[in-house]
Design a protein that fits this description.
Number of domains: 2
Strand order of the largest sheet: 1-6-5-4-7-8-18
Number of strands: 19
Largest sheet: 7 strands, mixed
Distance between the termini: 57 Å
Helix content: 40-55%
CATH superfamily of the largest domain: Aldehyde Dehydrogenase, Chain A, domain 1
CATH topology of the largest domain: Aldehyde Dehydrogenase, Chain A, domain 1
Length: 482
């Protein structure tokens, strides 16, 4: 399913006809042709306007996020608005350096007195399709990179987070001219109409299945894509770690946003002798964080839709039929879209290998715990599955840390921490294999939305005549020597 949005003026219908979509793309192409977006002052001005828009609409965004996902004010502000504002500040600080042409050496006797440089230039018109789980952050972080690189952009927020989509569209409409940045709200049909257009880059955040659809549509126009997908991110708990520390980190990272986080730990692999103690510690932390009844906690979110709620409760039911034991949580309330923080204990790693809970990314507040006998077994278990978006290990043993990092492949890795690596703009964020392709954040966003053009300068007065036929015998010797 494609989950996003389209509307260039408040009066337009959310279900825009194909001709309207084509008109928006064409208007942006005409505006891009003026080269106005190549001016760095223009880019800085637009980033400052976006910053002002985020500040002006922060209260509306917080309210919408609460309506869509039950996010507390702190959780929503810290993970959505603050990260977006920080990304703008970081980009404004470094934009001149990123956009500056880079001189490179020219070492060839045929190119004496020549010079060369690499010039970043914008790609053109880009399409950003955003997801529903962090609808503000995952709309604006790629948009910041697109603006910084000098592109025009069409943004489609997710219709699943409908209240937030509406506010995002309004923010964009009041901050930018539609021929530069346009927001388009709508459902699957709108996404399909957009994907029929020719863009210069498509940036998609969502599930692997839809990522394949986006890539197939892009291939028809030879459009490059960035796919930020997901997958089952493992969390290893080694025998050499502080269990209380690990429990606090895992519970926080897993149940933040009610588990609807693409880089949340999807399952835990714990050394068998420590499994019971880890589960006990995590149960204590859930009580500490959310109280006796998390339905009464202002800090615990809700499932985004009834469809996702049904999928997750079916997973809980299936896990019980597959010899998993619910050791914490399991309660749910369909009217409130509430699923309690749930820990599921798998007695044998062999059972977990093919269980329904382990088939696809859970993307909700259900945490399977599997025991391993040796670290080698845990690594082989991870490597038998598609490459994850991220991998976590809790261990105080440097040898164990290095063994896991060197023998596994993932989009990112984190040692003795969770989630926070995604908020560092100097680190690239992206997947590998089934978890995605390409990356962004900070300079990596600028690079994603730029073409790095090679330019060679040669003086017209230096004419190396040996280069032309009839070729001189000494030329080959010179080339071999060079």
């Amino acid at each position: 399913m494609l989950e996003s949005s389209l509307a260039s003026t408040p009066q337009e219908s959310k279900n825009c006809p194909e001709t309207r979509v084509e008109q928006i793309v064409e208007r942006q192409r005409q505006f891009f042709a003026t080269s106005k977006t190549k001016d760095l002052d223009f880019r800085r001005q637009q980033l400052q306007q976006l910053r002002q828009g985020l500040q002006d609409y922060s209260e509306k965004l917080l309210e919408a996020l609460h309506q869509d996902l039950g996010k507390s004010t702190f959780e929503a502000y810290s993970s959505e608005i603050v990260l977006s504002l920080q990304e703008i500040a970081y980009t404004l600080k470094h934009l001149n350096a990123w956009a500056k042409p880079k001189r490179v050496a020219v070492r060839s006797p045929l190119l004496l007195f020549s010079s060369a440089k690499i010039q970043p230039e914008p790609l053109g018109i880009v399409l950003i399709i955003a997801p529903w789980n962090y609808p503000v952050q995952l709309t604006f972080l790629p948009l910041i990179g697109a603006i910084a690189a000098g592109n025009c952009a069409i943004v489609k927020p997710s219709e699943i987070a409908s209240h937030t989509s509406k506010v995002i569209a309004e923010l964009i409409q009041t901050s930018f001219e539609p021929e530069f940045i346009a927001a388009i709200e709508g459902g699957i049909e709108t996404s399909q109409l957009l994907l029929e257009q020719k863009f210069d880059h498509i940036f998609f955040t969502g599930g692997t299945a839809v990522g394949k659809i986006v890539m197939a549509a892009a291939a028809k126009h030879l459009t490059p894509v960035t796919l930020e997908l997901g997958g089952k991110s493992p969390c290893i708990v080694d025998r050499d770690c502080d269990l209380n520390y690990a429990a606090h980190k895992i519970v926080w990272g897993k149940f933040f946003n009610a588990g609807q986080t693409c880089i949340a730990p999807d399952y835990v692999l714990v050394e068998r002798s420590r499994k019971a103690d880890l589960i006990m510690a995590m149960k204590a932390v859930i009580l500490e964080f959310y109280g006796e009844d998390p339905t009464n906690s202002d800090d615990y979110g809700r499932i985004v839709s009834f469809k996702q709620f049904a999928r997750l409760t079916n997973l809980i039911t299936a896990s019980q039929a597959e010899s998993f034991e619910i050791v914490e949580g399991g309660q749910s309330d369909v009217l409130k879209r509430y699923i309690a923080p749930t820990i599921v204990d798998c007695q044998k790693i062999e059972i977990g290998q093919n269980a329904k809970l382990m088939e696809e990314e859970i993307f909700g507040p259900i945490l399977p715990v599997l025991a391993y006998e040796t670290l080698d077994q845990a690594i082989k278990f991870i490597n038998s599955r598609p490459k994850p978006l991220t991998l976590y290990i809790f261990s105080n043993n440097p040898d164990s840390q290095q063994q896991v990092l060197q023998r596994t492949s993932s989009g990112s890795s984190c040692v003795n921490n969770l989630i926070l690596q995604s908020g560092i703009p100097s680190l690239p964020f992206g997947g590998v294999g089934d978890s995605g392709m390409g990356n962004y954040h900070g300079k990596f966003s600028f690079s994603t939305f730029s073409h790095f053009k090679s330019i060679l300068y040669s003086p017209a007065w230096f004419n190396f005549k040996w280069l032309y036929p009839p070729y001189q015998p000494n030329l080959l010797k010179l080339m071999k020597f060079g």
